[in-house]
Design goal:
The complex is a heterodimer of chains A (260) and B (193). With 260 residues, chain A is mainly α. Chain A has nine helices and no strands. The relative contact order of chain B is 0.12. The chains are: A mainly alpha (260), B mainly alpha (193).
């Protein structure tokens, strides 16, 4: 429904508002075209003309007054309750803050204690885990210190070696040498007589000679193994060993039928 | 024409007494404002304006202790409660029934007021009711609060939580629609009650 009226077109809203305010206040508008709205406003005002009996007013007023008293007493009770609630909330917050503080202090202490750990210490794993996330990461200097300790050397600031702190650490070093012996003996025992086996033994023999020359592990022992390998290679050129392919005994080079 | 309160200087003392729970003070307040509140509910087509007004005064009694202000702001305060009550009623009535609002409003407004305590309410011309029912709910809100409740544009803005410009715009559009209705009716149409 679209009907052209002065309210819709061609009039300034300020003037319309002024006239509508006049109408609502019961005064005639300046624009006569709006005059018919006067009766509408008067009729609408009659909605509010609801005569109310004195009994009705008295009854409802008494109820409202009683409600006020009720609300006042309820507020008084709720004030007590709210103070208790506040105290409880405060206590809970203080407890939570104390727990958080204790956790932070505890974690800082563990991180500090683990920072100086070296391989073999119970908290070395914690130290490495914390370093992964960037806590107490000492960088290259710390790594070199830990390496020196793991090799049994005393370094400034790490006067006690790992073997002194933990006898098992030295045992681990020995087991490394035993492992090397085992590996060497196994290499000697496999593929004896074949062209590939001879090449492998030749290669390993040279490696062991190199290790002996630079003094790694135990020079004398390595030189002995290299000699065994050399003689084994020479003998395999003439005939096959009886125990070719048999795994070597741990800590000893495999028997090749001829010792150097 | 305006249906404003007229307690004037005595308003403060009446308000203080009402806060303390004095029956007489509530009787004064009720006598002044119950009519416009019920009229507002009637104009919005509530089935039981008296019950709704009772709810408004119950809420008023609960919140009056925190109220500080003039007689004018008290009126705004009361109609803000009334408007919230209307929204609640509309929400429930929308759930209950999907009948056309215009017909529902018309039927309710034309029905005789048969409420205990209310002596008699003047009959509103059918044409006025029809023209009013053709407005949008927002336009009805504004015109009810402006004309029936007697609030200023600024007060209506506070009650509806709208800006003054928006209220004025709704008022203009609502009145334009009513004016258009008047232009369309036959010669027998009259707003004379």
């Amino acid at each position: 429904m679209k009907v052209d009226t002065p309210l819709r077109d061609g009039m300034w809203s300020e003037l319309i508002d002024r006239d509508l305010n006049l109408l609502i206040e019961g005064k005639p508008p300046l624009n006569e075209d709006l005059a018919p709205l006067g009766s509408f406003v008067v009729s609408l005002c009659e909605f509010a003309d609801v005569p109310v009996s004195p009994e009705f007013v008295r009854d409802h007023a008494a109820k409202a007054a009683a409600n006020v008293q009720l609300v006042k007493s309820a507020n008084a009770n709720s004030r007590l309750t709210s103070s208790r609630r506040l105290a409880f909330a405060l206590r809970r917050r203080v407890g939570a803050a104390a727990t958080s503080l204790m956790m932070i202090v505890g974690m800082t202490g563990v991180a500090w204690a683990a920072d100086s750990a070296v391989p073999g210490d119970w908290n070395y794993g914690i130290d490495r885990a914390l370093e992964v996330v960037g806590i107490g990461a000492g960088g290259t200097a710390e790594r070199l210190g830990e390496l020196a300790v793991s090799r049994g050397e005393d370094v400034p600031g790490k006067s006690v070696s790992a073997s002194a702190r933990n006898p098992e650490a030295r045992q681990n070093d020995l087991s490394d040498v035993s492992g090397l012996e085992h590996a060497t003996a196994t290499v000697v025992s496999i593929g004896s007589g074949s062209q590939n086996g001879n090449e492998i033994r030749e290669g390993v023999s040279r490696l062991l000679e190199f290790l002996a020359s630079i003094g790694e592990i135990d020079g004398q022992a390595v030189a002995e193994y290299a000699r065994h390998l050399r003689s084994a290679q020479e003998s395999s050129d003439s005939h096959l060993p009886e125990d070719a392919g048999k795994p070597a005994e741990t800590g000893k080079p495999a028997e090749t039928g001829k010792s150097g | 024409m305006m249906t404003g309160m007229s307690l004037g200087k005595s308003f403060e003392s009446v308000l203080d007494a009402a806060k303390l729970g004095a029956d007489w003070a509530w009787a004064v307040l009720y006598g002044e404002i119950a009519g416009p509140v019920m009229g507002f509910f009637r104009s919005r087509g509530l089935a039981d304006p008296e019950e709704a007004a009772g709810d408004v005064f119950f809420e008023l009694a609960r919140g009056l202790a925190d109220f500080e202000g003039t007689e004018e702001s008290f009126r705004t305060f009361v109609f803000a409660i009334a408007y919230r009550r209307l929204l609640v009623e509309n929400r429930f009535s929308t759930r209950r029934s999907r009948t056309l609002l215009a017909d529902r409003v018309l039927d309710r407004l034309q029905a005789d007021v048969d409420v205990i305590g209310v002596v008699s309410a003047p009959e509103i011309p059918r044409e006025v009711v029809r023209a009013f029912s053709m407005l949008t709910p927002e336009q009805r809100d504004v015109l009810s609060l402006r004309i029936v409740a007697g609030l200023s544009v600024e007060q209506v803005g506070e009650v509806l939580n709208r800006g003054v410009k928006k209220v004025k715009s709704l008022q203009r559009r609502g009145m334009a629609r009513v004016r258009a209705q008047i232009s369309q009716v036959d010669e027998g149409f009259s707003y004379e009650s």
